[in-house]
Amino acid sequence: MKELAKRFLDKECIIYTLTSNGGDLQGTIKEVSEGGMLIEDAQGQQQAVNLEYVTRIREFPRNKKGKSKSLVLD
Q1: pTM value?
Q2: Distance separating alpha carbons of residues 50 and 61, to the nearest angstrom
Q3: Looking at domain 2-59, does it have CATH number 1.10.8.100?
Q4: How many helices (H) and strands (E) does the chain have?
C-alpha cells in the first residue's frame, strides 16, 4: 500500500479507512512513510493515518472545467 499511496502525493484525494467515522477522509496527501501517511485537509489541519487501516485511495473527482465536484457518489 505504501508504494501505491506514493502515486497520490500532493493530490487531493478521498481516503477510505476501516475506522474513520464516515468511512472516508478528504485531503491532500503530503507524505507517505513505512507505516502511515500525512494528510492535510482544506482548513490546513494535518492528520496521520495508519496505512494498515486504509482500504482505498481515490483522487478527488473533477468536472470538465477542472473544478472539484461538490457531490461524490460511490
Answers
A1: 0.77
A2: 24
A3: no
A4: 1, 5
Q: Answer for the pair 61, 44: CB distance below 8 angstroms, yes or no.
A: no
Give the integer Cα–Cα distance in Å for 26 and 69: 13
Q: pLDDT tens across 14-37, in order?
A: 998 887 566 788 899 999 999 899
Dig out the grid coordinates for 65 from the structure.
Answer: 472545467
Q: Which long-range contacts (CB under 8 A, 24 or more apart) does 47-50 make?
A: 49/15, 49/17, 49/25
Domain ranges of the chain: 2-59
Cβ proximity of 74 and 60 under 8 Å = no
Q: Region 42-69: what's the mean pLDDT?
A: 82
